[in-house]
UniProtKB/TrEMBL annotation:
Catalytic activity: adenylyl-molybdopterin + molybdate = Mo-molybdopterin + AMP + H(+)
UniProt cross-references to SUPFAM superfamilies, sorted A to Z: MoeA C-terminal domain-like, MoeA N-terminal region -like, Molybdenum cofactor biosynthesis proteins
Domain MoaB/Mog: 183-330
Family: Belongs to the MoeA family.
Names of the cofactor(s): Mg(2+)
Superkingdom assignment: Bacteria
Keywords: Magnesium, Metal-binding, Molybdenum, Molybdenum cofactor biosynthesis, Transferase
Pathway the protein takes part in: Cofactor biosynthesis; molybdopterin biosynthesis
Cited PROSITE patterns: MOCF_BIOSYNTHESIS_2 (PS01079)
Record bears the keyword Transmembrane: no
Origin species: Halomonas cibimaris
Protein name: Molybdopterin molybdenumtransferase
């Protein structure tokens, strides 16, 4: 494979918005595939779904009771039929009522239902209260869904309710976006897998299981997990091989400028590098790039995207939410993943930032006075415990002072 140098990066620290612009430039949704509905949970619709049926399909009773004409309110009426769910009723005889159960079709001629608790039964007759109105306790045909309307838009992520919505139309198979294939690379001779005895200066790989879970929650499929030694030749070979099987190559560590940080060199030789020294905390070093494909399995677009996250676990955690989540959203056509939901909360902490934007890990409490954000005391990028119970990232601008009681912007860590 021919190697070349192609770099497009600035020496000045960039913003999150600039990095996202570079990362998402030219990204288009992956191809679709058809799946059985039972297998499509969490996937993203490739096409809009149009309603094939009215829901409900017929006027039906909202409760157990009696169907009658509202004009017969206050009367004693004979019970002319019994209508259970799933049965086909006869037309209601004039001057009569029908015993009816929840979900059963309304008989022709009836225009209201009275719950059984309001009816006095007298043998084969029923005595009704006054003041009934047409439409009482009836679920009208098409109240939920009308035939021909858009049921679900393309780009909808199929949660439990959406699956039920589709099943209610008799749909058994849907077209969904292919899950982005991700190769997850862990750099550094000092990083070893759990289960192996620690040697001098070594540490266990906490990033791999953490990022695997986050990527899967963002809709990706992690197809390769590889340890990358501190060797420039092996780093290039592993990155090149990863690009052949993945849509996105994600690395942790090796993106700074130290003598043992070989990722930047490898990207410059293999493809295109956008290296952003981001003005954020945590996560200042970030490598963004593109790697050409030469006959691998995931060949759409002819290239794989590369995201090099810092090795510190908190930096990787924050970087995954800020960059990997929107990238997976763009690849699956899911607009809901493009940005983290934002909300305003009251700060139960005080802080001051320097020239970098700070994403503080915080727990959120909902009080009668509104949401309150409590930042974890130790915000160091190596303190992963600050992420375990974090509900939000508090987005604090550079050169800002936050006092206890101030309003702060919180990014909700939803679905991770």
């Amino acid at each position: 494979m021919a190697e070349h140098t192609c770099s497009h990066f600035s020496a000045e620290p960039g913003s999150v918005e600039q990095a996202l612009g570079a990362l998402l430039e030219g990204v288009t949704p992956l191809a679709g595939e058809r799946l059985a509905l039972e297998q499509a949970g969490g996937r993203v619709l490739a096409d809009a779904q149009i309603a094939r049926l009215d829901v409900p399909a017929f006027d039906n009773s909202a409760m157990d009771g009696y169907a009658l004409r509202a004009a017969d309110a206050g009367k004693r009426l004979p019970v002319s039929q019994r209508i259970a769910a799933g049965s086909a009723p006869e037309a209601l005889l004039p001057g009569s009522c029908a015993r009816i159960f929840t979900g059963a079709p309304l008989p022709p001629g009836a225009d209201c239902v009275v719950m059984q608790e309001r009816v006095e039964r007298d043998g084969d007759h029923a005595v009704f209260p006054d003041g009934l109105s047409a439409g009482d306790s009836i679920r009208r045909r098409g109240r939920d869904v009308a035939y021909g309307q858009e049921l679900l838009a393309a780009g909808t992520r199929l949660n439990a309710a959406a699956l039920g919505h589709l099943a209610g139309q008799g749909i058994v198979e849907v077209a969904v976006r292919r899950r982005p294939k991700v190769a997850l690379l862990s750099t550094g001779d000092e990083v070893i897998d759990p289960g192996t005895p620690l040697g001098p200066g070594q540490l266990y790989n906490s990033n791999r299981p953490m990022l695997t879970r986050l990527l899967e929650s963002f809709g990706a499929e992690v197809v390769r997990r590889v340890n990358v030694p501190d060797d420039v030749g092996q780093t290039r070979a592993i990155i090149r091989e990863a690009a052949e099987v993945a849509d996105v190559v994600v690395s942790t560590g090796g993106v700074s400028v130290g003598e043992e940080d070989h990722v930047k060199n490898a990207l410059e030789r293999l493809g295109r590098l956008d290296l952003w020294r981001l003005a954020i905390r945590p996560g200042k070093p970030l490598a963004l790039g593109r790697l050409p494909k030469h006959g691998g399995e995931a060949k759409e677009g002819g290239e794989a995207r590369f995201v090099g996250l810092p090795g510190n676990p908190v930096s990787s955690f924050v970087g995954a939410w800020l960059f990997l989540r929107p990238l997976m959203g763009a690849l699956t056509g899911c607009a809901a993943l493009a940005t983290l939901p934002a909300m305003t909360a009251t700060a139960d902490f005080a802080t001051r930032t320097g020239p970098r934007r700070h994403y503080m890990r915080a727990a959120l409490a909902f009080t009668p006075q509104g949401p309150v954000a409590t930042a974890f005391a130790d915000q160091n990028s190596g303190v992963l415990s600050s992420c375990v119970d974090a509900d939000v990232l508090v987005d604090v601008p550079p050169d800002a002072t936050v006092a206890k009681g101030d309003a702060v912007t919180c990014l909700w860590l939803a679905g991770g």
